[in-house]
Write a structure and sequence with these properties.
By secondary structure, the protein is of the alpha/beta class. The strands form three sheets. Strands 6-7-8-3-9-10 form a six-stranded mixed β-sheet, with helices on both faces. A four-stranded antiparallel β-sheet has the order 2-1-4-5, with helices on one face. The protein folds into two domains: 216 residues, Rossmann fold (3-Layer(aba) Sandwich), CATH 3.40.50; 64 residues, Alpha-Beta Plaits (2-Layer Sandwich).
């Protein structure tokens, strides 16, 4: 079931077009990472979904209901924190939660939210005394009020210390297992890679890639480096087997195949040839490397 459907979204700021036919879906209980450079349009997409900015054409559906200027009832199922948390600074954290509660969240549930977002110890202090990380956690707590089916979080890990980032990551995974769908942007790509089920890459207001997490990375460079006792003999034997090894300073390098079986073939071939294997390392592009490569290719389109 699709919690969120964005179809052919276009947005102009005056004469400047900010979004170009942006389309993507978010399945129930999934975490979708919206990634791209600063100014790519990520926040504009999120603001369009929750009604903080109007869009010029296209459609947005939440739980199958189309959002319009006069029909925004389905936003009751959305919790969001976009760009930066905006609590009332002269109120305590607890007072902010009570204020944003539409009446559907019980005191017990508010207490649970406070514990899950780890704001209990400072919940009775005024928000103006909070650090950025405290405000982030309060903003996430507010987003969790009123039983949302969809969470939209823009840079929720900003300002958090490593332990808080780890705890938030675990919380988001727990929420997705409860069936809550999560749309999240983050510059901490290594953290995002630990939780996202899908990615949508935005560049210059356009979607340049949509992919599940495993496929996104499987397209990256994968290679195996092997230090051996006899480099020349190893190259000879592997070529005879039908592989394409390349010599490097300490041994040989070979690209893995799509099935990931090249390493087994290499080890078997070298063992039969009585070539000693001294060390093996396996490398693959991480999310950041894959993203940078993708953005570079997109930026260079049409450039001679």
């Amino acid at each position: 079931m699709k919690t969120l459907e964005v179809e052919s979204l276009n947005k102009f700021f005056g004469r400047k077009q900010a979004l170009f036919d942006v389309s993507f879906d978010l399945e129930q209980g999934s975490i979708l990472g919206l990634i791209g450079p600063n100014g790519a349009g990520k926040s504009t997409i999120m603001k369009s979904i929750v009604g903080l900015t109007n869009y010029n054409s296209g459609s947005i559906k939440i739980d199958g209901d189309t959002l319009t200027k006069n029909r925004r009832g389905s936003l009751e199922n959305v919790g969001s924190m976009i760009e930066s948390p905006s609590p009332y600074l002269n109120l305590t954290g607890r007072q902010n939660l009570n204020l944003f509660n539409d009446g559907s969240t019980t005191e017990e549930e508010i207490q649970q939210i406070m514990e899950e977002t780890q704001i209990t110890e400072f919940a009775n202090r005024k928000a103006k005394k909070y650090s950025l990380g405290m405000k982030q956690r309060l903003g996430i707590a507010i987003a969790l009020l009123n039983h949302p089916k969809l969470l939209i979080l823009d840079e929720p890990m900003n300002g958090l210390d490593p332990q808080s980032t780890h705890d938030l990551r675990d919380l988001l995974v727990k929420l997705s297992k409860r069936g809550i769908s999560i749309l999240i942007s983050s510059h901490l790509l290594d953290e995002l890679a630990r939780i996202a089920d899908y990615y949508v890459v935005i560049n210059h207001g356009k979607v340049i890639k949509k992919s599940d997490a495993s496929s996104f990375l499987s397209g990256g460079l994968k290679n195996i480096r092997i230090e051996v006792s006899d480099v020349e003999k190893a190259i000879e034997k592997l070529k005879a087997y039908g592989l394409s090894p390349v010599k490097y300073d300490k041994g040989i390098e070979i690209e893995d195949n799509d099935q990931g079986t090249a390493l087994n073939d290499v080890i078997a071939t070298l063992s039969q040839a009585n070539i000693q294997i001294l060390n093996v390392t396996r490398n693959q592009e991480d999310l950041e490397e894959s993203l940078l490569k993708l953005l570079s290719e997109d930026n260079n389109k049409g450039v001679k």
